[in-house]
Amino acid sequence: MIEKLYSIGEIAAKTGVTTRTLRYYEEIGLIEPDLIKENGYRYYSERTATIIPVIKYLQFMDFNLKEIKDFIDNGDYEKKMISFKTAIARTKEEINKLKARIAVISDWDKLINESVIFHLINKEVPIKVRRHEKVDVIKYDMDFDFDYKKLILSVDFANFVSENNTTITDSVMAYYPSFKKRIEDEKNKNTTPVVCLQKTVSKIENIENMTRIEEGYYLSTYHLGAYNNIIDSYIRAENYAKEKGYTLKNEAIERFVLDYWTTTNEGEFVTEILIPIENYEKFREEQE
């Protein structure tokens, strides 16, 4: 019985691939036409076309065409098993990348939602005490000249993160060993020491490049708008602490909620200032 032959266009439509793809498969030896006429027209039997579902299925498993050809041509089952193990390892790596991507997107979405609230109320944000949970972050020491764009979008910090084979997520943070020195340095137009902090999607091997924001009670205030008058928000926080009888620690964190990563409009920036309270638990006990 003579098997029916199909033109390249017909077999392409039947198998769901393009004629260009079929020609390339022929070029690399994955498929051979049953008949090539003098005019160059190619014809395929249905039996010949059965290789196409195998190719498509292996492509779904992330095999490239070279790997597919080796898999089909090679009768060594041990090598086939190695091929599958390689594909599994590659797929797991891709899953980890997708998990990291979801984490980064989710954290960024939360920051935008957090900032939208302050733009909606459109008034001075009240100062409050909030408990901050401990969080491990990557750290990068810098001399800060109060150019916030260079700090937040630091090329050096980005390279440092890449060297540590990790991905950053959530807000960029600036840690100052002394917020009073930070204020004075800005007033005097001096550079000031700062540690750039950010959460990472995965742990890094070199623990010396990690630090921890300790859990505890922090005085929290949000600075809205450009950074040129952020000192006013520090002064507001200090005055509030004096009124309440809180003793503030030296250090402070600026947490950039809405910044240059999301918008170029500095009037829309939202920055949380966090200053740890030294005696809050004792103070609260005395009040009770």
TrEMBL record:
An example Gene Ontology molecular-function term: DNA binding
Extent of the signal sequence: none
Annotated HTH merR-type domain residues: 5-74
Keywords from the UniProt entry: DNA-binding, Repressor, Transcription, Transcription regulation
Protein's UniProt name: MerR family transcriptional regulator
Source species: Peptoniphilus faecalis
Organism lineage: Bacteria, Bacillati, Bacillota, Tissierellia, Tissierellales
